Amino acid sequence: MRFRWAIIGLTLFYSAYTLLAPGEDNKWSLDNYKENIHLGLDLRGGVFMKLEVDLADALDQYLEEQAGTIKGSLEGDKFTVASAVHDFDSQSVTLHSVASTEYPDTLKRIKEIYGNWTVTRTGDNITLRLHETAKKAIEEGAITQTVKKIQQRVDELGVTEPVINRTLGSNRIIVELAGADDDQRVRQIVQEPGQLEWRLAVRGASQAATPEELQRNAGNVPPGAKMVHFVDEARGSDYYMYLQEVMLTASHVSDVSVTRDERGLPAVSIVLNRAGGQIMHTNSGSNVGNQLAIVLDGIGISAPVINSQLSERFIIQGSFSQQEVEDLVIKIKSGSLPAKVVVLQSRKIGPTLGRDAIKSGTMSAVWGLALVVVFIVVYYRVAGLFALASLALNLPLIMAMLSGIGAVLTLPGVAGFILTIGMAVDANVLIFERIREELRSGTMPKNAVDVGYKSAFVTIMDANITTFLAAFCLYLMGEGPIKGFAIMLMIGIVCSIFTAVFCSRTFFLQYIKRRSSAKTLSIWPLWASKSPGSD
Fold first, then answer.
1. Does residue 229 surpass a pLDDT of 80?
2. CA 464 – CA 489 distance, rounded (Å)
3. Which of 119, 195, 417, 496 could form a disulfide with 424 if both were Cys (CB 3.0 to 4.6 A apart)?
4. What does the pLDDT look like over 441-485, one tens digit per residue?
5. pLDDT above 90 covers what percent of the chain?
6. Are 243 and 226 in contact (CB under 8 A)?
7. Is the model's pLDDT at 533 over the cut of 60?
8. Distance between CA 176 and CA 180 in Å, rounded?
9. What is the pLDDT of residue 352?
10. What sections of 55-165 are H helices per DSSP?
11. Where are the alpha helices (DSSP H) in 80-179?
């Protein structure tokens, strides 16, 4: 018995500690449960978004990045490559004027290095095409990485318990940010690619005010060059330039922070990793006098002239506000999105619905609990009180487990919580009816209780396990409200089994221990005549 009471005591301690644990202020208070129980979007209000990952853009970005990477890798392997051009329509990368003094058979060597590509030669040019399996892997990876990077960006915003899930079997993502109030900023943080690049300018191709003028004046532009639009509102400049392949990306950044430039304006401090620093050191040293462009999400920020060899530390400056700099730091830290994200649906949900739902849900729970109390006491008398004591343990334990696993309480979760009030008593009803059967057959109260619990246990477990599995399938397959209901149902089932089978039996054993010589048991309805084994 001591062991049983110790388990119940630990359960109560866990529930109280989890629900009342101090927050950031490190103060214990009865009101802490309001912070420890995380309310979902429908109860607290916030921002809801349905996003879609552009898989075609994922392949396009991958091919463009691989064009520069393959060219640089081959040049490091003692190849000479005039240029590398990616083509989305054929999903290929073409290397122009490939030669090597180290490898007589350049085609064979490139096939050995890039086994995931179909490699063919046309004159001095070599073309690499993606395998079909590689395309599927790139698309799947793009969706997974987008979910992960959006999660990292949202975490930087300080939103409590964000819900970011991929819709099963599709390229769509559901974002629910309870408590968020600036939906425009959330939209920018979630949707903007955050694709930061450093590109060298094409030598001899000066800047121009319009794309048409740039094309007329550029002369012979090498393959793989990209026309980029530069906008600097602070300096009032708006022009176009041709840039070479990508030299560095945000993946080469090891540290990023908010700082100020020489004019005292907000700027971004960049520290490159070892590989990025080496690339910057080598390329800047051989391109003194040329311009190095900084491109964010396809728009040029600035293109300063390289006056000397650069190191791994520098700043990005432009016409940024303080919030724009902070958001840029968030995007660089999380990394660029591997594909464009399209916002299919976006809405801001006010807390009014949540307050009404909590109020009506509380009233429903109170009325449901009151009806259960009346029924169980009238129909089972003292045994019913044991069931109610178990129910009293069940309710805070459910909320503590919900808080402990970091789950969010949603409106369907409130419905699931109310449902567990009835389910928590259901197991006791099965046990009590089995005990009554034993008492009718003349079994002594202590033995009737033992047999009642043992014989009903299999039925209770069978019913609850099947319900738990159904709830688990809802959790895996469902989204949003369905998931909230499934979580609450699974937690309620686990807690109900513990309180109904373990806790109520402990109360019964203690009751019988104090009345060891009694030959009666208070378990019959108030209106029933005395039956065998009853008071």
1. yes
2. 10
3. 496
4. 888 888 888 888 888 888 888 888 998 999 899 888 776 678 878
5. 2
6. yes
7. no
8. 9
9. 57
10. 55-76, 106-113, 132-156
11. 106-113, 132-156
At residue 169, φ and ψ (nearest 5 deg) are: 75, 15
Question: Strand runs (DSSP E) across 317-363, as ranges?
Answer: 341-349
Residue 26 — left, alpha, or beta (φ > 0 → left; ψ -120 to 50 → alpha)?
left
31 DSSP 8-state letter: G
C-alpha distances out from residue 243 to 125, 224, 235, 295, Å: 22, 9, 21, 10
Task: Please count the CA atoms within 13 angstroms of the CA of 82 that sit on its side-chain side.
Answer: 10
Q: What confidence tier does 127 reach under pLDDT thresholds 50, 70, 90?
A: very high
Q: How far is CA 360 from CA 365, 446, 486, in A?
A: 9, 43, 21
pLDDT at 534 (0 to 100): 47
Rounded CA gap, 347 and 82, in Å?
Answer: 50
Strands 299-302 and 292-296: antiparallel
Query: In the block, which residue shows the tokens 């001095």?
Result: 124
Cα gap 396→16, rounded to integer Å: 8
Alpha carbons 520 and 352: distance in angstroms, whole number = 54
Can you tell me the distance from the alpha carbon of 302 to that of 318, in angstroms, rounded to the nearest whole number?
Answer: 7
What are the tokens at 446? 């202590």
Q: Are strands 125-130 and 196-201 parallel, antiparallel or unpaired?
A: unpaired
150: its two tokens: 């959006």
What pTM does this model have?
0.57
Q: Please, what's the b/e burial string for 301-318 (b: 16 or more CB within 10 A of its CB; e: otherwise)?
A: bbbeebeeebebebebbb
Domains in the chain: ranges and CATH: 2-39+350-514 (1.20.1640.10), 47-55+135-347 (3.30.1360.200), 59-134 (3.30.1360)
**Residue whose structure tokens are 């979630």:** 190
Residue 312 CA neighbour count, 13 Å, CB half: 15
Q: How far apart are CA 278 and CA 272, in angstroms?
A: 9
Convert the pLDDT of each residue in 478-505 to its tens digit: 766 788 788 888 998 898 888 888 888 8
Helix (H, G, I), strand (E, B) or coil at 258: strand
